[in-house]
Amino acid sequence: MRKEKEDRKLSKNEYVKSILLFFLHLVVLVAIVAVLLFGDKLGTIGVTLKNNAANYLYMLFCLILLTGILYVYFLFENPSILTSGKTITLLFTVMDVYLIIAVLLGARFHVYARPIALVPLLVFALVGRREAIFMNTISSLVTFIVDNFSTAETVANNIYSSLFLSFSAGMIAIFFFNRARTRFQVVKIGVAVVVPVSITIFLLEVVELASGNSSSITEISNISRIVENMGFGLFGGAGSVILFLALLPVFEAIFNCLTVFRIRELTSHDAKLLKELRSKASGTYNHSTTLAQLAEACAASIGEDVDYARAAALYHDVGKLHQPEYFTENQWGYNVHDELTPELSADIVRSHAQDGYNLILSSHLPQFLADIAIQHHGTMPIRYFYAKAMKLTDGELNIEEFSYLGPKPQTKLAAIIMIADAAEAAVRALKERNPETVEKVVRDIIEERMDLEQFAECDITMADLTKIRMTIVGVLTGVYHSRVKYPQIKYKQSSGKTLGENK
Ligand SMILES: [Fe+2]
Ligand SMILES: [Fe+2]
């Protein structure tokens, strides 16, 4: 699950900008409602407003109030949303789109046919769970307010049941979406929503018939009405999922959002750059997949997003695709650096950070992957070539000529990749791998980077570093556990039997 954004205070400027943006979206919302409810005058929409001035004022006041409540909620619970104009626009657009669909379906067919789980599903996938829960409440109430003034019969007769169904189906969808990791799994949410919705509609219809006293539930016309309304509920539940799957890529593209589905697709074996890495630089690919295990475990240990960590690990070294044979994990016997000066070697090796950054962006992959690719070595010296150069000269060496160009890690995730990357390579090279030797190597790696101030630009804490160290030791001692030495046995055939003897 994506990490919830951290709370912080807004500056005066940010207050003004966010209030103006909310006001702008309120105007758009009111305009949409006006077009929808006065639409019959144009003869196209078929929705009529209960026509009197007090109604208009009341509706306007309710919409202002709900928009204000939404603003205050974010101000208290997640102020960073208010600093992102893109996210505010996204949230209102999702609500506006749903409102248009809901009003039209309600007037033309039935309120039960509405895609009632659409808003929470889209907001959960595109923004987050907390926002989905609150937007589900607000959009249910906005639709309820508008429904209050509709003269369409199916709307007017079912205002309260529609509000209840919309709110509860949204919450059910959020509960099941929490576990969805692929677009296909979302289909199950449709079933999870449809079942309670259909039962509720059935019971509501039975209650209505029982209180009417005029006709029996067994009358054919009543049975067919119940079945028809349950059919609308089925249509609404299925429609929520179909519309979600259809609209999600559109919102992903327009608002440049990174959903859990997109991350999963980027980290699948079929992802283009990873396929290329596997075929052209198999050593780097294997290193990256082990690093992915480590990064996921480290991210989980300090509350960072595991899917983001996995993706960052898999893509951190794609810059090596440029010249794979210059990196030890892809060399088999012959070392091309033997024929180069240490300065030239260092230059080639450090360029993989910048090359990775460029390649990721030119492949239209997310910015955070590029950022971590360029930050994962920070400004660390390339020790091997620095040591080689020191052996070849008596004079002073400029260590910066043998160092990565940075920037240093800017996020906790980048710091995790930096530590786990170095630890994976160092532990792989160890002859004796037991918890003590692995622990010493990882501790040294973290201390060396702290001495060189590699974590000075990210908000990682000592407590995080301790958890990361313990996690890496745990995972790496498991990955590279020492095997029992197999005895050497020589086999031979004698009189049709296989016999063995110690070598
Ligand atoms: Fe690297
Ligand atoms: Fe690496």
List keywords for this structure.
Arp2/3 complex 21 kDa subunit ARPC3, disordered N terminus, mainly alpha, 503 residues, binds fe (ii) ion, 20 helices, two-stranded antiparallel ribbon, Hypothetical protein af1432
Please describe what this structure looks like.
α4 crosses α6, α9 packs antiparallel against α10 and α14 crosses α18. By secondary structure, the chain is mostly helical. It is built from 20 helices and two strands. The protein has a two-stranded antiparallel sheet. Bound molecules: fe (ii) ion (FE2) (2 copies). One fe (ii) ion (FE2) binds next to loops.
Profile the largest sheet: 2 strands, antiparallel
For this structure, the CATH topology of the largest domain is Arp2/3 complex 21 kDa subunit ARPC3
Bound molecules: fe (ii) ion
Shape: elongated
By DSSP, the count of extended strands is 2
Low-confidence regions: 1-5
The class by helix and strand makeup works out as: mainly alpha
Lateral arrangement of strands in the main beta sheet: 1-2
Task: Reconstruct the topology from this structure.
Blueprint: H1 12-37, H2 53-77, H3 79-82, H4 85-108, H5 118-126, H6 129-147, H7 153-156, H8 159-177, H9 185-212, H10 220-254, H11 260-266, H12 272-280, H13 282-301, H14 306-315, H15 342-362, H16 367-375, H17 383-392, H18 412-429, H19 435-451, H20 462-479, E1 489-494, E2 497-502
Antiparallel strand pairs: 1-2
Helix pairs in contact: 1-2, 1-4, 2-6, 4-5, 4-6, 5-6, 5-8, 5-10, 6-8, 8-9, 9-10, 12-13, 13-14, 13-18, 13-20, 14-18, 15-16, 15-17, 16-18, 18-19, 19-20
Bound molecules: fe (ii) ion (2 copies).
The site of one fe (ii) ion has 4 residues, from loops.
